[in-house]
Every structure is written in structure tokens, then in C-alpha cells.
């Protein structure tokens, strides 16, 4: 794949697809993680003397109409502050944009364009005609085959991978394709059903798999224990059993909780009780792993060569049920392992426990991170490979 860093950008019209899909409340950006990650790419292109056009989506507006809620205006303002120069937001750009050398402009939300979601060739060709070089840097949207992430790659004069996309793929490749062992994955979240493909793919690669949250509850039920009134999926007990059997066959370890924290209701102030995993009663909800389990998992993390973390192991939004997630977060932070964390809830936990500088790599991908862990080829990456003739 051609990389942006291989190209001479001076004077060139460079269209860069970023994922600037950040949460905005009342016009204020509430997390700048994706902007922080994209900024070095934009600075590099600007400093190289490119005429920079930034393309991104924000939310999921209807195509063919302007939606003020989904405008990239706050993002353009943020970029202007960080780049120390005016950054124009261009609303009408499909028939061409004037951009000076060293200037950076933001093109309004690409999902307002008709044909974006359907990966329409006519729109893809319009994007391609805007530029001399198209740079795909939006790892967070690389799992979408849309006109701005996929179609345009077919038609642009030159298509390249940006530094952020390259860094994400390098980090994920290091973690999953050539991992320092033992390779330990933490897969947590509410449902086995949404992460089954991921569990099935990872169990073929990892040495240790820690499951948490509602996923762990289904595994606990698969062992024949009661989970009381906890969230779990009875239909997926056979799937959980298959994962456990495959782990045995491969000599991989899927430790299950020995103790859990239960409460009579799902609320921040519900009384939290530690219980052995085989003593959960009707009416009780498992809301976290217990302290002995957390201690054992932390020990495994300390000895791992690589840690891939997706999902909190308890309801960490409520402090009374955050001990397990906090213990694991601190263990990841302290471990010499190469660690990678991704997914919205995981990043919220990383943020809450202030370990962002201790994790080796924090992915900007939500869905894209999960699809990579599922072993799927991301359509945008496939398109870049096809362009490079590989
Ligand atoms: C994300 O937030 O995961 C990406 O920006 C993709 O957004 P989408 O799920 O609306 O395609």
C-alpha cells in the first residue's frame, strides 16, 4: 500500500478522509480523542505544502439535505485553534474547491451527500476529481464501504494510506499477527451475540481469554451456575460452550470468575455484595467481578506479552461496581506487555482511570476495531491494497 509519507505533497491538492466523528453536546465537543489522533496527519500535510481538504462524516444525517446538528463547524473551529490558522468550513465543494498551499479546509459532513452511504460511483468520482492525491486516514470508518472511504480510492489519481491508518494497522498487526506471548485478550460487554464472531476468531489466536460483563454471565451459565436475574443469553450457552471447548483443544485458558459482586437492582446506590460465583440467588444481578477474580486476572495481565482489551468487566459507570474494571485497567497500565485498547466503553474506562499514557496503543476505532478483531478485512484497506496491486 502506498503511504502518505512516501509522497511529495508540495502544491498538491490532497483530500484526506479522517474520522472526525466526535461526540458533540450543545455545540461543544465532549471528547477530542479522534481529533487529537488525526491532527498530526493534517499538520504533516500542511507542513509539506499541500492544499489540504479534510473530508469526514459526523453522526448519521439524512443524505440530500443540510442538518445543522451534524455540521462539522465545531470541528473546523477546533482545528483552526490547534493548527493556529483559519480553517474554513466549505459547504459546497463537489464541483471543486480553491485551496492555497499550506491551507487546510474542512469539507462539510460527507454523509449529507447523496450516494455516500451506497458507495455510489458518481459521487466517488466527484470526490476523486477534487484532488491529486487521496489519503485514507479514517481507521474508525475503514469498516464502511462508502463513497468517501472506499469508492473514491478506485478513482483518485493517487490513493494512499495516511499515518493514522497505518499506525492503527501496524499496532493491531503487532498485537494479533506477530504477538509477544502470552497473548491475552479481554473481551467484555453486554452480549455474546454481538461479539460471537470476535470470540470465535480470537480463541484461535490467544493464549488467554478473559470474558466479562453479560458475556461472562452467559459463560457462567454455561458452566451450570445460576446467574440469578443477571443479563445473559440462554440461547448462546451452546456457543459459549464451543468457545470453551476450542480453548481446551488449543490449550488456551478461559478463566471464569471465582467470585462476583451482586446487587438487588441495577442502580448506582444498590448495596454491593461479594459472593462466590456458585452462590448467586434468584433476584440478584451480577454487576462486577469479585476481588479475588480481579486479583487473579491482574496477575495474568502482569505476565502477558500482549494484551488486547475490548470492554469493561463490570458496570464501572457506578463506582460501587467499578472495582474489577479499575483493577484490570491498572494492571494493563502497569504490565510490561504491549497493550492495545479500543471501543467506546473501553476508552471511557481508560479515561476514567487516567491510564491513557500507560496503554501502548489506543485505537480510534469502535466498529472498525471490532471488525479487525473478528478477522475481517476492512473494505477501505482492501481497496488500498487493490490499488497497490496486492
Ligand atoms: C464510529 O463512530 O464507529 C465511526 O465513526 C463509524 O460511524 P458509523 O457507525 O456511523 O458508520
TrEMBL record:
Gene: pgk
Entry keyword annotation includes Transferase: yes
Protein name per UniProt: Phosphoglycerate kinase
Matching PROSITE patterns: PGLYCERATE_KINASE
Top-rank taxon, per record: Bacteria
GO molecular-function terms, A-Z: phosphoglycerate kinase activity
Membership in a protein family: Belongs to the phosphoglycerate kinase family.
Record EC number: 2.7.2.3
Pathway this chain belongs to: Carbohydrate degradation; glycolysis; pyruvate from D-glyceraldehyde 3-phosphate: step 2/5
Keyword annotations of the record: ATP-binding, Cytoplasm, Glycolysis, Kinase, Nucleotide-binding, Transferase
Subcellular location: Cytoplasm
Principal location listed in the UniProt entry: cytoplasm
Subunit structure: Monomer.
Amino acid at each position: 500500500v502506498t503511504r502518505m509519507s512516501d509522497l511529495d505533497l508540495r502544491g498538491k491538492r490532497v483530500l484526506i478522509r479522517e474520522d472526525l466523528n466526535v461526540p458533540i453536546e450543545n455545540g461543544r465537543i465532549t471528547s477530542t480523542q479522534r481529533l487529537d489522533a488525526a491532527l498530526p496527519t493534517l499538520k504533516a500535510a500542511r507542513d509539506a505544502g499541500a492544499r489540504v481538504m479534510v473530508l469526514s462524516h459526523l453522526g448519521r444525517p439524512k443524505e440530500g439535505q443540510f442538518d445543522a446538528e451534524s455540521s462539522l463547524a465545531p470541528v473546523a473551529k477546533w482545528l483552526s485553534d490547534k493548527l493556529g490558522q483559519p480553517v474554513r468550513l466549505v459547504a459546497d465543494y463537489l464541483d471543486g474547491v480553491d485551496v492555497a498551499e499550506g491551507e487546510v479546509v474542512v469539507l462539510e459532513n460527507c454523509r449529507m451527500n447523496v450516494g455516500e452511504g451506497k458507495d455510489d460511483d458518481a459521487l466517488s468520482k466527484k470526490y476523486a476529481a477534487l484532488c491529486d492525491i487521496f489519503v485514507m486516514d479514517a481507521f474508525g470508518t475503514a469498516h464502511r464501504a462508502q463513497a468517501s472511504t472506499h469508492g473514491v480510492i478506485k478513482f483518485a489519481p493517487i490513493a494512499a494510506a495516511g499515518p493514522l491508518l497505518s499506525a492503527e494497522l501496524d499496532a493491531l498487526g503487532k498485537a494479533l499477527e506477530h504477538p509477544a506471548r502470552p497473548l491475552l485478550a479481554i473481551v467484555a460487554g453486554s452480549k455474546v451475540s454481538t461479539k460471537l464472531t470476535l470470540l470465535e476468531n480470537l480463541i484461535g489466536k490467544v493464549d488467554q481469554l478473559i470474558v466479562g460483563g453479560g458475556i461472562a454471565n452467559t459463560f457462567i451459565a454455561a458452566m451450570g451456575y445460576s446467574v440469578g436475574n443477571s443479563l445473559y443469553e440462554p440461547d448462546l450457552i451452546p456457543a459459549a460452550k464451543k468457545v470453551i471447548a476450542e480453548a481446551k483443544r488449543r490449550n488456551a485458558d478461559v478463566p471464569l470468575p471465582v467470585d462476583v459482586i451482586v446487587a438487588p437492582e441495577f442502580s448506582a446506590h444498590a448495596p454491593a455484595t461479594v459472593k462466590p460465583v456458585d452462590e448467586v440467588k434468584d433476584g440478584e444481578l451480577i454487576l462486577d467481578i469479585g476481588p479475588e477474580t480481579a486479583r487473579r486476572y491482574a496477575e495474568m495481565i502482569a505476565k502477558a506479552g500482549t494484551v488486547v482489551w475490548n470492554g469493561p468487566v463490570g458496570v464501572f459507570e457506578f463506582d460501587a461496581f467499578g472495582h474489577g474494571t479499575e483493577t484490570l485497567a491498572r494492571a494493563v497500565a502497569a504490565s510490561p506487555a504491549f497493550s492495545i485498547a479500543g471501543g467506546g466503553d473501553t476508552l471511557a474506562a481508560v479515561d476514567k482511570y487516567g491510564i491513557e499514557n500507560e496503554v501502548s496503543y489506543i485505537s480510534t476505532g469502535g466498529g472498525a476495531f471490532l471488525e479487525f478483531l473478528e478477522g475481517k478485512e476492512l473494505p477501505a484497506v482492501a481497496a488500498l491494497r487493490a490499488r497497490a496491486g496486492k
